[in-house]
Amino acid sequence: MIRKGLVYIVNISHPYPIYQNQTKNKIQNAELRGYTQTVFTEAIKNFVNTHNDEFNKIIDILNRDKKAEAAADKACLKVLQATNEVEKIKNEKYLLQINLKMQNFLEKILFFLLLKEIVLRQA
């Protein structure tokens, strides 16, 4: 296979074709699949022999596309990792804010308890 996703079309007639799904975009018959692969392979060989320069240009384009796709996948992964890191920092910041508020609240309770204790001792 030259590239993932490369599509070829072969027009054949078969009395009992079996398709992979309802859209009939992929043949399930092993016999027909083998035949179409053979026809495609022969057609590619013929094209390479008669149009070698054009074929090499196509291969170069496909290779560049593959490299660009790999670079895009890598960039997407980095963006996802950065997004996760930002979320983690946001969560940590939020937890720190909650802890600070709780600490503030507990200090106020402690202050009122101490004040109550002082008032009770003076009475």
Work out the helicity level: over 70%
Tally of extended strands?
0
Helix-strand category: mainly alpha
Poorly predicted regions are: none
Major sheet: none
Q: Calculate the terminal CA-CA distance, rounded to whole Å.
A: 94 Å
Compute the CA-based radius of gyration: 35 Å
Shape: elongated
* Tally of individual helices: 2
In what range is the share of β-strand residues? under 5%
Which whole number gives the mean pLDDT? 85
Q: What string, H for helix and E for strand, traces the elements in order?
A: HH
Note down, in words, how this protein is organized.
The chain has 123 residues and is an all-alpha fold. It has a domain at 51-122. 75% of the residues lie in helices and 0% in strands. It has helices at residues 30-50, 52-122. The longest helix is centred in the last third of the chain and has 71 residues, at 52-122. The chain is elongated. 0% of the residues are buried. The model has no long low-confidence stretch (mean pLDDT 85).
Describe how the helices and strands are arranged:
Elements: H1 30-50, H2 52-122
Helix pairs in contact: 1-2
